[in-house]
Amino acid sequence: MRVTELVLHPIAIADPPLRSSYGLHAPFALRTIVELKTDSGLTGISETYGGDGPLAGLEAVRARVIGMDPFQLAGLWRDMSAAASTGDRTQTYFVPGENPLDAYARTFAAIEIACLDVIGKAVGKPVCDVIGGRVRDEVSFSAYLFYKHGGGGGVGDDAREDEYGEVLSAEACLRECKQMIAQYGFREIKLKGGVLDPAIEIASIRMLRREFGAAYPLRIDPNCAWSVDTSVEVGRALKEELSGGGYLEDPCASLEGMGELRRRLLAEGNHTPQASNVATTCFADVPRAKELDAVQIVLCDPHYWGGMRNVQQLSNLTSVLGMGMSMHSNSHLGVSLMAMTHVAAACPNLIYACDTHYPWQGKKDEVAAGGRIPFTNGCVKISGKPGLGVDLDYDQLARGRERYHKIPFRKRDDEAEMRKHVDPNWKRVLPRW
Amino acid sequence: MRVTELVLHPIAIADPPLRSSYGLHAPFALRTIVELKTDSGLTGISETYGGDGPLAGLEAVRARVIGMDPFQLAGLWRDMSAAASTGDRTQTYFVPGENPLDAYARTFAAIEIACLDVIGKAVGKPVCDVIGGRVRDEVSFSAYLFYKHGGGGGVGDDAREDEYGEVLSAEACLRECKQMIAQYGFREIKLKGGVLDPAIEIASIRMLRREFGAAYPLRIDPNCAWSVDTSVEVGRALKEELSGGGYLEDPCASLEGMGELRRRLLAEGNHTPQASNVATTCFADVPRAKELDAVQIVLCDPHYWGGMRNVQQLSNLTSVLGMGMSMHSNSHLGVSLMAMTHVAAACPNLIYACDTHYPWQGKKDEVAAGGRIPFTNGCVKISGKPGLGVDLDYDQLARGRERYHKIPFRKRDDEAEMRKHVDPNWKRVLPRW
Q1: What is the pLDDT, as a whole number, of residue A89?
Q2: FRET partner for B72 with CA separation of 20 to 30 A, picked from A221, B16, B166, B338?
Q3: Cβ pair B133:A284 closer than 8 A
Q4: Yes or no, beta carbons of B72 and A122 under 8 Å apart
Q5: Contacts of B71 in chain A (CB under 8 A)
Q6: Residue A86: pLDDT over 80
Q7: Does the pLDDT of residue A266 top 90, yes or no?
Q8: Could you count the other beta carbons within 10 Å of the beta carbon of residue A61?
């Protein structure tokens, strides 16, 4: 089996005005759907970051990929990672997917996942079984709450209905969570923080705890918006609420900052685990994170950790180092959701519900044949279908391409959106509180 | 595809009277050939430790394995490793393959490798490509020199011709090495030490260096026979000879001992790398080995590290921790050799030539169809054949079973052989020097 064609579909999908410490989501999120055709007649697919940068990254490996045997992934990774820089690969000052230093890992992942999909189809096996076999048949995801402005994203004909409205208070956050859990059945809850005054975010978490109880572990992620001092205060205020399977995710910037936070919290008997996808984005970060005890839970993501097998390696590495593993998410459609589900099913150390932005996207934009992927009790099932178990709806894909070509966005820039819609002088400042 | 039958072939193979700090090899080494038949009509094979213990271990999982999908390996590993003890899993006081605490890892490996072989056959791909793709097309092995008594092992009709004779001096060791390199083309050299007075072993290494030069990296492995003081002396004496790709393997017992040795050698500017398969036998040992800086090179072995994918994980783990990886060997035939070759081909961090006992076994005992696996310039090639690329010669296998049933040995016991043939009061004492 040889790769004969690499087809790249840049698409745009309506994205609600979600807030984070990075700024504001634009009305459209950008994604790229990859089709990898082979001489066997089978096609593998994947979904990755969108816009000019990721497209250029994929174009740059086209000649290397055409003609290759989809099984020969380790050699491709070796070649693509050979020139990997040891510079700052964190996501402290970049939204996920925008740090140029790990562009090769994102590009590789898009190819790897499409290769694993086509291998699964050739072999008649789900991808999770191709890479070693599942340790679970369904994967649990968490409710991913955002503070947001009103509206569901998109513009004009491409606008998306919105059931959540404006969410800029603790009360609205609770309402959002109830709606989302009623619809999806999630049993863990994540709040994207770093947006409102920490007192409001603390109140939000407390209201969630009061409503859902200890059976629903809680995590809050301000993407480094807090100083170490503020992080200590929040950690102290939410000691009870974040216990029992919850965690504090990237409260402040850098491994050094999180290490200091950890020491200060431990000194007062507070064992709240700290998670990170901002300060730990590649294997080289993990031993340092462990050494400083800055991070107890590493967030994986096949999209930027260099694909599924690297995430399996991270599962083993974190397990050996006595750390936990959870999963990070970006705005995505069903192809990414199934890739996340398959790799999660094959990672024994993935002991937390995975993040997913899926509830924030709509059926109008879904490119998976058959429409939106269903959740049952917050979980996505591994079907018996070969590969990722998802096919493309080419009409929907064409609509996504049309949207992409209609809009001016070619790069995620949450700061620009803040300046456009909220405050013409807005700048991301760390720490904000 | 489902497993329908598990056929276990206990065999015995002539083994020369090789010496190590564990004692003396018996005239026969024991191996088990595993056939895993499936409802697809395809059969996967593997080779593992022999004798009663390994057979009982495999029998104990028969019911779990029959009916299983060969792709579902992660679930099998989870089930088999669930009860793993945290006790002393080192090989300090056990010959490899005899520590009961990791019997489950050896049993799993025998099943996993046979499953990967049958998957490769089903998919039409070599095993190295099934598990992620090769990073090299041929795998380099090292000359594995032993001090030995005269003779090639076996008894009566089952005796094996011996081209090496008695090797109990530095001069004989050099002769042995020249013979072996002339025949196989090896380009790295390992000496099993801990047998003669360290002065003779130092002289052996020096003669090898003088003869072969710096282009042939040298390693010496006394299996913990030396005290820390003696290890310091040997490390000092061989500083030059073990540099440039060589290493000091398990000179003394325990991670603590090797850590002390490291500190003392570094203090005198001696950076000789230390390798271990005795003190680091499972993932839990690796962070501690790193923390103490006791080990810079971990020796993998798919047979007791829990199979090929675990060895891949070890490749990643050691790479992330800034350690190297080499490969350990036991007496084995061609099926094991091909399993070692395939996993080595798929491990980027395997940067040393692998150990192999293969030159110590003979064509009379080989169960691989077509006879002995060829070496070119010390390397074994990955052929284009599916699976491990090796089939069984059933006549040879039947002869191996016959030999097994004729002999009294059911367990490797090098100490008993020393008492029988060398000294009725011989005991393994650590440290001996």
Answers
A1: 85
A2: B338
A3: no
A4: no
A5: 125, 129-130, 133
A6: no
A7: yes
A8: 19
